[in-house]
Design goal:
The chain contains eight helices and eleven strands. It is an alpha+beta fold and about 250 residues long.
Amino acid sequence: MIVHPNAKINIGLNVLEKRADDYHELSSVFYPVKDLCDILEILPATEFSFSSSGIEIPGEGNICIKAFEMLKQDFDIDNVKVHLHKQIPIGAGLGGGSADGAFMLKAMNILFDLKLSTSQLEKYALQLGADCPFFIENTPKYASGIGEKMIGIDLDLSNYEIKFIFPELHISTAEAYDDITLKIPETHLLDLINQPIENWKGKVKNDFEVAAFTEHPQLQKMKNQLYTDGAIYASMTGSGSVLYGVFNSF
């Protein structure tokens, strides 16, 4: 079985407050970008194995392995051979790792006919990471909490083109949160998103941009270039460093 875990972008990302558990309360819209994806192949095997190609994946214990081990604990499933071809940049705010884990769960559900419901898959996915449940339904969502509370929203950018700039720059999530200024926006993000996209510029904000652009001025220049090139709306996604622009399709 071959599946294609796709990226997501944040349209607006407000960091509201720090919680007692040291996580942060967020407000954001997650939007799937299905033409930017990894390739995940899963085959039945006598022994479990995991390999990867493409972009080098740092560290050990890939999220796909964790997803398999989680289901293996609860179900009598056979071993699999897993190969992940990594194309979504790592540590870039695009949710590639979260997508890999979620798509592994969905593929295993089909491969072994586990009959897990969407809500059951989302519960498993949440154990892998706060962003992972989004990729189970893989449709536009308004996310709150630490990103795990989601409601579906009516947002369709299929008539637009999303273009990316991939800086050769890794911004640590921990560093990004250390530099963030917590605040409650004057207008709720959902109220802004419901306005025409032409109204988003300067209003739909990613709070991580302030510190990131101060520390890395080239990112501000890249965002400005997207607008110069005709973007209707441009932003950094997640805690960075990838930037995207939404353009009219002609």
